[in-house]
Amino acid sequence: MSTEFIIGTIIGLIGIIPVVIQFAKWVRKRHNLRNLMNKLVDNSLSTKEHKKVLMLMNVKLLPIGKRISSEYINSFVLNKRGKEAVFTDLCLKHDWEPTKELCEMFMNGDYPSIRKKYWDMKKEHQKKDESAPNNAEKVETVQTQPKGKEVVYLSGLLEEQFPECFNRLTTILNKHGVEYRLLKGTKDIWCKDYMPIQTESGKLIQFRYEPSYLKGNKEWEDSRSDVKEVCRLNGFEPVFSNINLDGGNVLLCSSRAIVSDRIFTENPEYKDKGQLVKDLSALLEAEVIIIPAQNGDMTGHADGMVRFVDHDTILGNNRSEEYKYWTNGIEKVLKDYNLKYIDVPFFYSYKDSKHPDHAIGVYVNYLEVGNLIVLPVFEVEGNKDDEAIAAFKQIFPDKIIETINFNDVALEGGVLNCTTWVVKQ
Predict the structure, then answer these.
(1) In terms of pLDDT, which residue wins out, 239 or 76?
(2) Angle CA(113)–CA(115)–CA(117) in degrees, nearest 5?
(3) pTM score, two decimals?
(4) By CB neighbour count within 10 A (0-12 exposed, 13-18 middle, 19+ buried), where does 407 fall?
């Protein structure tokens, strides 16, 4: 064997080493537990493909001494479950405590709420095992909601500036025994935006309230409430975060949160968008789902576009009448997170030269408190009130639907969800 051949072979081998390293990195990234978890809850895959994903997970779990049982793999059916439900089920069936490290491996972030559900459900299973006969079939428990009654808070300015709307709303609340209170020290009526977000565990998270849409106009800047002062005056002691985020851009339901991508432009100091989402997820104790904001929408708030019906279902403005770029964006979100979407009416046809940024026609900005939904009706030309009422009665057959004309407020750019802050106490 010639010296030239040996040297050439060595050089060739050295040359392919970077390729091998890159391939190994690609394999690791492609088949890490986070990506596999996303595949496991992908409804477009077959049950057979899901089982292959579980077997791949077993390979990744070997170094940490965990294993998914063959019985679990053979009987696995996704049905309509999301990531949190499947991960919690994996932990329960294999007696894995969902520690911060394990949550980050599977879910790309810590989920204290999953830990709480794990221990609650584990205790419930133990109680059932102790009381049931040995041959009794085990039944998965229903996730419990945080304890406490819901109280609706309103800015004291709502009564002062819009007395008719205030009286209509409080009459409905009184009719159904819903307690309401007035907030002190506010500078505008949009209390949903500047008050804290309450997580599923009951914790209050107060975000920085410096929305870009209030800047550049002295009157608007002067109307920005001092969140620390409002919390102090009203006796709230939240956890403060430096993330700039309005409450109207946060929708929470069963360990999931929907936020529009406006959050990225509101927090330019975060160069890494993924890190911002991760930090937000930890604060909200929820999986954060980013949806596209609508071009031309001053606030970019999620609550003007969609709302949660339950963990796996959202309702929103009728996609057939929405802008194509937005429907394309929301369709990708629905696929990525296995969400169902129910189309509800809306209309843009109402014009008012004095109020170009009004919210007339936005039915999704309703108030939901307990078993009651207060739905705005607009009673203007071109309205879809009857269609909206029928849709909401069909979507929420077990809830009480009350309607309200809130137009004096809607002309200013928001409706019921914007002017109410619901807290469990």
Answers:
(1) 239
(2) 70
(3) 0.67
(4) buried
